[in-house]
Amino acid sequence: MVLKGSSLRQRLAVVLVLSVFALAQAEDPYRFFNWNVTYGDIYPLGVRQQGILINGQFPGPDLYSVTNDNLIINVYNNLDEPFLLSWNGMQQRRNSYEDGVYGTTCPIPPGKNFTYILQAKDQIGTFYYFPSLAFHKAAGGFGGIRILSRPRIPVPFPDPAGDFTVLIGDWFKTDHKKLQAKLDRGHKLPFPDGILINGHGPNGAFFTVEQGKTYRFRISNVGLQNSLNFRIQGHKMKLVEVEGTHTVQTMYESLDVHVGQSYSVLVTMDQSAQDFYIVASTRFTDKILTTTATLHYSNSNKAVAGPIPSGPTDQINWSLNQARSIRTNLTASGPRPNPQGSYHYGLINITRTIKLVSSADQVKGKQRYAVNSVSFIPADTPLKLADYFKIGGVFRVGSISDKPTGQNMYLDTSVMGADFRAFVEIVFENHESIVQSWHIDGYAFWVVGMDGGLWTPDSRKEYNLRDAVSRSTTQVYPRSWTAIYMALDNVGMWNVRTEFWARQYLGQQFYLRVYSPVNSPRDEYPIPKNALLCGRAQGKSTRPL
User: Fold this and answer.
1) DSSP output for 325-368
2) Are 351 and 316 members of one domain?
3) Using the 8-state DSSP alphabet, how is residue 423 labeled?
4) Is the CB of residue 280 less than 8 Å from the CB of residue 262?
5) Is 394 within a domain?
6) pLDDT by position in tens, the chain (length 545)
7) Which residues, at least 6 apart from 88, have a Cβ–Cβ distance to it below 8 Å?
8) SS3 content of the chain, % helix, strand, coil (to 5)
9) What is the extent of the structural domain holding 224?
10) What backbone torsions phi and psi does residue 22 show, to the nearest 5 degrees?
């Protein structure tokens, strides 16, 4: 690996960090990536826009890994503003410093680089990366992540003939800086202009397959706000994996993919030789946006024909029932040889219940969003660094309640404290008329229940305590609740956020500080030697060589 543009000190620090990792984990391979982040012209909906490219690509390149691989990703920021990448669904075990959100990691300054040192520790599955600062996500900079099982770990389906990344999402023709400025002025965003599949508008993306073979499609909704329904004309999809969990292999004609979520399906090319529509369309919107790609049989000379297959539109119960049908395959191995069902989450005593209610309101005449009445505002220093260096006045643990308070909305740098190795129940309650989508960094959790109305303790009678799916992003339907169980086994400062990106930007997020009083690398890795330092941490040193 050549770290061009780095200082000698930075290069030595990275080499020393890698040396320590190599000694501690000599059996785990390394994969090296050099990513150059630039602006470039893109035309996803037929008009020129300034996009964020990685190595000249929009979307960015796939991040390919195998369980436990060490990933060394050197990111050069050639934009005119600070930049960070985050890794949606990768758990950063014991290592929230590398999570790539502003609460944990200093931004990469313009013209500088930073080397992320990640490990796909005890993970498999389908995820994605994205730019986490400002409103960069509306300009691109995202790409797929695939973590394959180690060769000696059985996978509950035969190797597919091919493996496709399918990034779907809503899109604006408006420049991302103009969208951000609109939010900064306290306004809501308009309805998006279209839907993209792998960075292309209608009929732009192309997937070539061979008749009679089976392919894996890794579908991620990398958009800004809308749930999307995904389907393939004339073909059924067998669901096999959701955000790192092998699922019961159920056949679906279409799948609701809520913003921030990822799914893997197997599709067998069992039709006559021709081309077929791949379709993504918005759910639960007054105006339905639809886009298409092409599934091309390699022996086909017939173009796509017939009407675009219709999908569900505003049917909440249809989506709710589909969500409840997605369950963990208890006998399949996950990242380790033992079956996924060997961890009996339903038999563990809950140590704490956290109830989170989102809201929308005006603060000082500007649109804001909140969790339990607190609308998050970033501090001048990443919270994880302030915690490590014991810098006072940056944040206060307990600045957000673990229950709704009924207070008027107010601004604060909200951090909730939690104990390492606790086992918590979190209830997301949605009093609004939109579908919400929630993500928790650093963790996967069991989605044990969801239903309409208000949650009460009696709602636990409906919980799935046997084979609930484990994932990192869950939906909450309008005027409904979703309950999850989560084992707090990952020390760090972790972002809890809506995936509705304008709401996230305007305050619907907070940080969960999972704390261990034992200062041991068994619980949490020390601060990386090459960590960027900013805000009130600037001028301090990381750790001695």
Assistant:
1) H-BB-TTSB-SSSSBGGGS-GGGSPP-EEEEEEEEEEEETTEEE
2) no
3) E
4) no
5) yes
6) 334 444 444 544 454 445 444 444 457 999 999 999 999 999 999 999 999 999 999 999 999 999 999 999 999 999 999 999 999 999 999 999 999 999 999 999 999 999 999 999 999 999 999 999 999 999 999 999 999 999 999 999 999 999 999 999 999 999 999 999 999 999 999 999 999 999 999 999 999 999 999 999 999 999 999 999 999 999 999 999 999 999 999 999 999 999 999 999 999 999 999 999 999 999 999 999 999 999 999 999 999 998 999 999 999 999 999 999 999 999 999 999 999 999 999 999 999 999 999 999 999 999 999 999 999 999 999 999 999 999 999 999 999 999 999 999 999 999 999 999 999 999 999 999 999 999 999 999 999 999 999 999 999 999 999 999 999 999 999 999 999 999 999 999 999 999 999 999 999 999 999 999 998 999 999 999 999 999 999 999 987 64
7) 127, 128, 129, 130, 145, 220, 260, 262, 439, 472, 473
8) 15, 40, 50
9) 162-325
10) -65, -40
Angle at 497 between CA 495 and CA 499, to 5 degrees: 130
CA angle 394, 395, 397 (to 5 degrees): 155
Q: How far is CA 115 from CA 31, 143, 173, 255, 463, in A?
A: 13, 18, 32, 36, 42
Residue 531 tokens, joined: 């960590």
| In a shared domain, residues 221 and 264 | yes
Amino acid code (one letter) for 107: P
CATH of the domain at 109: 2.60.40.420
Nearest alpha-carbon partner for 260 in 362, 169, 155: 169
Residue 469 is which amino acid?
V
Residue the block writes with tokens 């909140």: 370
Phi first, then psi: give them for residue 407, nearest 5 degrees: -75, 165
Please give the Cα distance from 226 to 435 (Å, whole number): 8
Nearest to 156 by CA among 248, 272, 75: 248
Cis-peptide into 59, omega within 30 deg: yes
Q: Is residue 403 located within the same domain as residue 516? A: yes
Whole-number Cα distances in Å, 19 to 30, 76, 108, 119, 199: 12, 22, 24, 15, 38
Question: Helix (H, G, I), strand (E, B), or coil: what is residue 183?
Answer: helix
Regarding whether 117 and 260 lie in a shared domain, the answer is: no
Residue 362 to residue 412: CA distance in whole angstroms:
15
